[in-house]
Amino acid sequence: MLVPSLKVQDLIEEIRGAKTQAQEREVIQKECAHIRASFRDGDPLHRHRQLAKLLYVHMLGYPAHFGQMECLKLIASPRFTDKRVGYLGAMLLLDERQDAHLLITNSIKNDLSQGTQAVQGLALCTLSTMGSAEMCRDLATEVEKLLLQPSPYVRKKAVLTAVHMIRKVPELSTVFLPPCAQLLHERHHGILLGTITLIMELCERSPAALKHFRKVVPQLVQILRTLLTTGYSTEHSISGVSDPFLQVQILRLLRILGRNHEESSETMNDLLAQVATNTDTSRNAGNAVLFETVLTILDIRSAAGLRVLAVNILGRFLLNSDKNIRYVALTSLLRLVQSDHSAVQRHRPTVVECLQEPDTSLSRRALELSLALVNSSNVRAMTQELQGFLQSCPTDLRADCASGILLAAERYAPTKRWHIDTILRVLTTAGAHVRDDAVANLTQLIGGAQELHAYSVRRLYCALAEDISQQPLVQVAAWCIGEYGDLLLEGSCEEIEPLQVEEEEVLALLERVLQSHMSLPATRGYALTALMKLSTRLRGDNNRIRQVVSIYGSCLDVELQQRAVEYDTLFRKYDHMRAAILEKMPLVERGGPQVDEEAKESKEARLLEAAPVPTEPQASKLLDLLDLLDGPSEDAQHPRPLDPSPGGALVHLLDLPCAPPPAAPIPNLKVFEREGLQLSLSFVRPPETPALLLITVTATNTSGGDVTHFICQAAVPKSFQLQLQAPSGDTVPAQGGLPMTQLLRILNPNKAPLRLKLRLTYTHFGQSVQEIFEVNNLPVETWQ
Fold first, then answer.
1. Max CA-CA distance within the chain?
2. Whole-model pTM?
3. Spatial distance between the Cα atoms of 260 and 240, rounded to a whole number of angstroms
């Protein structure tokens, strides 16, 4: 005979009293066996108690799937005690992945139309928790009827269920659109809050709903103004602020309705100014309302004075003692720095003070904002502040800080000397954290400033003598000493204090770099090359340099060994050529292929201007020679008569090696269109690299809602090489705003027909969309 089943309270006490997990598992297994037996026997009086125990077991993480069908039986029961536990079990044990959830649709429908308020509330809660798209479509009419029920309890739950239905099935917006206007007249704050949320969901998913609800902006403004002027209410006030939850939600809806709409923005301007000036900021509830007000002001087409007021409020937030408020202020100002740079610039001292925050997340945000505030007028002061922060900042921020200072100096440097000094300070303070191109940029900068060669080599020599641990600094110093070591020994620099340096000191310093365990192989390569170049710039004996070079001829590092062997060979076999080979490096112009092509064209133009006009026999002989290269032909045996004009022969001669005329532009191709989102491809094939194809993906949006979290991914056959550049953003603005672009670089060495597969992932009107398609109709010019 089985032991009688435990009550719910007794089961909880026994489980909590278990001293080990094995004891707990034993108790639960024994009780689950009783529950299964009770379900099989079909005991209707105690079924709800057995299911309640099973739900507690489910909450502890143990399997309880065998109780799903019992939930359906209890929901169909006419007793409220059964329905209450049955609906609770359905919310916990059922979801869209199980087909059993569809079996309760009819029971929910009956309870919504015929049940009491308590039963209707249970059915609405269950539907809003686990209702699938099919259930939402079947029950939308019943929920719409309940939106206008006399009972506030049922109306509030019906509104929240409608929100869930819109999120599941956006097509149902036409069903819930008419009741919303009537629900806005509600005095019950809970219903009003749910209605505002429902309208937000409708506007985000339907352009028609957005246009429709812009007409109720004056009504929303009046509701918010009433909340502001209402006195203290024990039912709704929190920390002296009248229902901040409702105020925040109304402000969010106003932000959606006023975005890119002039008339709606003008209607709410006065109210936003009133909220911004009258809200109490001594408590967190007031700060929440004020922050939403600022976001609304900045997102709509507000007046210029109102935007300045919003930025000043964010500036006051930076002085708040709450770290969270300071963080959101820094984040918001960072978003504004491009559009309202001058207004944000007024709070620069406060932002700089936030760099010293002990909280890393705050100091990181302050660093990003400080770097964004740097311009040509404040670059000296801001760089000084950032360099002070670089000396004491946490290790994980050093790389970002150093890179930001170098970029700001490169962009806004007032003089070359200041630029060089700034980079040297960064390399001295945080050389191990700078970008990889910092060494090349500084050597380029020093090489291009001929008047600062002596100054630079002395500064770098002093810095190297003090510290040889910062590898980028050591590399630049070794390069500079090798190039301009003669200026270092002359002591002719008037811009710094006189420094007398002997040849032996310079050689000893470079040898110290070579022997240091902190030196990287690349750094030793710089030092070895510097020693070799000094062999032509120093007046003393080169035996010491030759000895060091020969030692590294047996180095374990292959690159360093090869370099030392070549230098040693230069000493032994080609000593007469050493001075010419080791001359100062010519200045390399910075720029890409376009700069090189322009320089080449200008050089050819100068040659043409200076070229003498050849005589006719000389031109004829050259024409015959060029024809022989192409093989015999009738034209080669019988040359055409040349132009009798004096310059005619030169014109024909120069026409022969000319490049073919530029190819016609490749036409653009539209590859995707859905709900206002369009994707088009434009193509460019650089003449200097025929195998390379540059594809610019341009996404435009003519719909009424922004396309967010936009990601474009591409794939090509294995015979191609594909490189995706970073996109210009992840949001495609609505109403034909600024398009989003992304560059694809495809290398096609075999000139094979191009096939491209694209995958688009984005969110539009609150729905996540993923599209995968193949582009097979690319123009022939893209690969031939």
1. 127
2. 0.64
3. 34
